[in-house]
Design a protein that fits this description.
The structure is a single chain. With 160 residues, the protein is an alpha+beta fold. It has two domains: 31 residues; 104 residues, Alpha-Beta Plaits (2-Layer Sandwich), CATH 3.30.70. Helix content is 36%, strand content 26%. A four-stranded antiparallel sheet has the order 2-3-1-4, covered by helices on one side. Strand 2 and strand 3 form a beta hairpin. The longest helix has 21 residues. It is globular.
């Protein structure tokens, strides 16, 4: 009794010698790739459409903890000076400062609360927006001996 070697149906029949099977296999591959690439992005990759007079823009939120190493808290005067030196020159068209309370978990698992400031900026769309944000973050960390400053950038519909 003569036996045929075992091969997959796709490799045996989906060749240019079998046009219908070849066409269906190629079509399935193309459909899979379209599906993969059209759904692989996260929420940030999805297009945002704005209605009326709203325009799409990137909005940055900077999260500044006010706790200092010695257990003291950054004063309003120190904060105002930082805003005048670092934020206003880089984003002169404006931003919003919100007083808040933040929470984070340290390496030992303890949850810490501290007063903080949230700065929201509708970014102007300049090529150096990212560099300006990085400079603000770096300046705050250096001046007030902070380990980190939170930064969130997301698309939004804005109007002013």
């Amino acid at each position: 009794m003569r036996t045929k070697p075992i091969t997959s149906a796709t490799s045996a029949s989906a060749t240019p010698d079998h046009p219908a099977a070849y066409f269906l296999t190629r079509l399935a591959t193309v459909a899979f790739c379209i599906l993969l690439f059209s759904t692989s992005g996260g929420a940030a990759d999805q297009s945002t459409s704005c209605g009326g007079s709203l325009k799409i823009s990137q909005v940055a939120q900077l999260l500044f903890g006010r706790g200092l190493k010695d257990g003291a808290e950054l004063t309003e005067g120190d904060w105002s000076g930082f805003v005048a030196r670092e934020l206003t020159p880089r984003f002169p068209k404006g931003f919003t400062v919100i007083d808040s309370v933040g929470q984070w978990q340290n390496a030992q698992g303890a949850v810490t609360h501290q007063t903080s400031k949230v700065v929201e900026i509708a970014l102007p769309g300049d090529s150096d927006d990212s560099a300006k944000l990085d400079a603000v973050v770096d300046a705050y960390k250096l001046q007030f001996h902070q380990k980190s400053v939170g930064l969130i950038i997301a698309p939004a519909c804005v109007r002013f």
